[in-house]
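Table S5 (text form). Sequence records supplied for joint modeling of the two-component complex.
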Amino acid sequence: MNNFKTSTKSDKIKVLNVAEKPSVARSIANVLSKDHRIEETKSPFNKLFKLDYRLKDVEVEMWITSVTGHLKSLKYPQKYQSWEKWDPIIILKEAEIENNISTDKQNLELNLKNFASICNRLILWLDCDREGENIAFEVMEVCREANPNIQVNRAHFSAVTYVDVRRALDTLKYPDENLSNSVIARQEIDLRIGASFTRFQTLLLQKQFNLSSIVSYGPCQIPTLGFVVQRQKEIDSFVKEQFWFIQSEDDQKCIYNWDRTHLFDELIVALLFERCYQESATVINVQQKDVQKWKPYPLCTIEFEKLASKKLKISAHKAMELAERLYNKGYISYPRTETNKFPPTINLQTIIRDQQNHPVWGEYATNLINFAFEYPKAGNKDDKAHPPIHPVKMMIESEAQNRQEWDVYQLIARHFLACCSKNAKGSETTITLQINDETFSKTGLVIKEKNYLEIYIYDEWSQSQVPNYQQGDSIKIKLTLQKGSTSPPKPMTEAELIGLMDKNGIGTDATIHEHINTIQDREYATKRGQIIKPTKIGLALVESYEILGFTLHQPFLRAVMEQRMNEVALGKKEKSQIVQATINEMTIILKQLQEKQNLIIKTFGSYLEALKNYDEDNDNDDNNQPRIPLDEAEETTQNQPKVNKKTKNQRNKKSDEQPKNSITPPSICQFCNSLCVTNKQLNGKLIQICPKLCQIQEDINQNSHHQSTQNKDNCFQCNLCQNFMKIRYSKIKKTNFLGCSSYPQCNQAIFLPDTVKSIKLIDKKCTKCESPLFSLQFNENYNQVHQTSFFCLFPGCQYIIKTDWKQNKDSNQTSFVGKQQNKGENTGKYPFNPHQQNRNFYNKDKSNNQQKFPYYKN
DNA sequence: GCAAGGTC
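The corresponding C-alpha cell record, covering 858 residues in total, follows.
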C-alpha cells in the first residue's frame, strides 16, 4: 500500500536531484541550505530533502533524494535455471540476458517515478566514476518513463563540500553514454563468463570429488586465488642457498656490517677473510645526516583495509563492516573511497577541533591547532567522489559497541591527526671502518622530534646507538667469518594480497575484501590470523589450469578487460563489439576445457591425491615441507630435511674452526708469481688460490674428492647449468628420480624405469666416469637379477641401466635394457606430460600463451 | 547453486 504523499503546493520550478546514496543526498541538502525539510519516502533509508534555491538566477524548489547503488541487475531468464539442461556454451554465447530493476529496488523506482512526474528538471548527482555514470542512466530511464519531457543534467563534483556542490551546479553537464555502456559491457561479460565457467567446473568436479561448495569461476576471484597459490608454490619450491660473510665487532659489542653484504662463494669469502684478517681497524668516515620518517598519506579504503589487517589484526572484510557501521552512526566519513588526497575545499582545522576534547588525544589535537599543524601530503589517487576517510564526530572508547569498533575508529582518527602533523625527525650516524682492503659500516639513529609518531602508534622507528668515534681513530676489532642461508618467501598476508589485487586491478576498493571472502567461502583458501593459504582444492584447481595450459588464473585477464572497457568509455569501440570479441575468445577456451574434461578430472584428482598430506591449516612452513607437488612430476626434495640438518652441523663445526688453522705451506702462482693462499673448505678439501685469481689449485697432498662428495646428496653435475643433480622423489609416481638442485631455474631431470622403486647414493665411484654409484631397490614384482648391486646413473655411462637427460617433451622416459618402456605418448600413468607445458609457473612464456589463447592478445 | 559492481 503506497501511503507516500509529497507536498506540491509551491508554483516554483521543481528540480529533482538524485544521489547514489542517502548520505550524499543529505550532504548536498546540508550544503545548499540548513533550512531544508525532510520527508519520508517509500524507502526508509532514502529520504527526500526539500529546499528553496536560486539556480542560475531562477528561484527553484530543490528536491534531493537518493538511490542505493544500481537499480538494475542482469540475470538469465527462468528457463536457464537448470544447470544440467543447458550446455555452458549456450549460457556463455547465446542465452539472452535480462536487465531489470531488482525486486529490492522497486520502492526506489516508485519514488523516482513519483518525484519525476512532478518535477521539471532532473540533476544526476551519482558518483563521478564509470559505475556512477551507468547508475545515472538507470535513474534517467526511470524518470523519463514517468516524465518524458523532464530536462536532464549531470552534476560533476569531487567532494560534497559547499564549494564543489556550488561549482557543480554552476557548470552542469550531460551524462556520458559511452561511460555507461562500458559498464554494461563489463556486466554482461562478467555474468556470461562467470555463469558458464562456474556451471562447467561445478558439474565436472563437484560430485566426482565430493566437494561441499560449488566450483565457481570469476574473473576477479580466480586471479585472487592465483596470487595465493603462486606464493605457496614459491615457498614450496624454495631451495635454500648458503652464503658467507665477514663480521666485525668492536670491544663495545657494536657489530659492523660488511659492505659486500654477503657472497655465495665460500672460497672467495674465505680468501677475503684471510687477506683482511687483523685485530684493529681504522675509522675512515663518521657521517652524520638529518633524516625524516614520513607521515602517512590520507587514508583511502585499500590502505585502511591493509592497516586494519596488519596493525589491528582485523580482516579487511570485518574492518569494512565496522567502518560502515561507524559511518552510518555518523562517526567517520564515507569509508569506500579511492582518494588519498584531501580536496582544498575541506576544512581540516574544523575536523581537528572536533577532537580537542578527546580524553586520549585531545591535547595532541589542541597542540596541532595551536602551532604544530602541517597540511597533509597529497597522494596520487582521486575517485572524484569521496574524500579520504576521516573522523567526522568525536568518539570515546565507552561509546564504541565493542573493542574492534573502537580500534577501527581509533585507527581512522589517529591516522587523520598524523596526516595533519609534521614528519618525525632524526639524526643518522654512519661509521665506516677500513680493515685492509675491506670496509665495514654501522648506522645508528637518534630520534630528535617524534611529531606524528606521538599519535600514530602503528609506525615504529627504532633508535640505535653507535660508539662515539672520530675519523682517523684506530679501534680494536674482532673479525669472524660467518655463514648464513637465504630464507624462503614469507606466507601471504591479507594486507599483501590486497596490495597485489590493487596493483593488478583485481576488484575495486569496495569489492576487494569481498573477493578475498569469496575464495574462502568456496573453500579455495583459508585464513589463519592474517595468513592466507590455498586449500587442496584451490591448489588443485589452479594447478590444473596451469598444467593444461590455461591462464584463467592470471591477473592480466582483468587488465585486458579494463583496457577494452576504456575503449568503449572513450567511444573508440561499441560495447557490442567488445562483448562479442571477448565472448568469442572465451568460447574457444570453454570448448577446449570441455574437450579436455577427462584430463581435467584426472589432473585435479591427481593433485588432490598428491596433496592429501598437505596441511592447509598449518602456518609454519618450515615444518610443513614438502607439501605441494611441483609442476615437474610432483617432485619434492626427499632429502631436504637432512640437508638442512647437515647445514646446521657444518655451521657449528665452522664456528669452532678458525680459518688460520687450515693454512699449509703456500705455493707460488705459476702465472704471476704471487704467494698463493691455502684454504680449507668445509668438506675438508684444501685449495691453493692465487690472490689475483690467476689459478685455483687443488692441494695434491690431500685426498682429492670428486666434486659430487661436497654434499652427500649431490650426485654429479647437471649438463645444462653445472649445478648438482640430486635425488628427488615423485609423489605421484612414488619413486625417486634425479633432478637438478637449481630447480625451478633449471628443470633438467633423469627419470628411472618404473621397476626402480628407490635409489640411494653410496660411497663408491664408477670406474668408467668417476660419478658416484647408487644402490637400487626394485619393485617387489620385479624378478630380474642383476650381477651387480651398484649402478652408475650418469647418462650414457652404464650398459645395465641406460639413463638420459630429459630435455624435451619427447625424451621424458628413461629406458631399461631388455625392458623397453612406452615412449612419447602420454600413457595415462602420469596425470599430464609436464614437458608439454612450461614447468615454471613464474617464468611463463607469455607469447606462447597469447598464441594459444587469443583472449589475452592485446 | 553461477559474476562483479553499486549500496544498506
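Note: Residues 76 and 95 of chain A are 7 Å apart (CA to CA).
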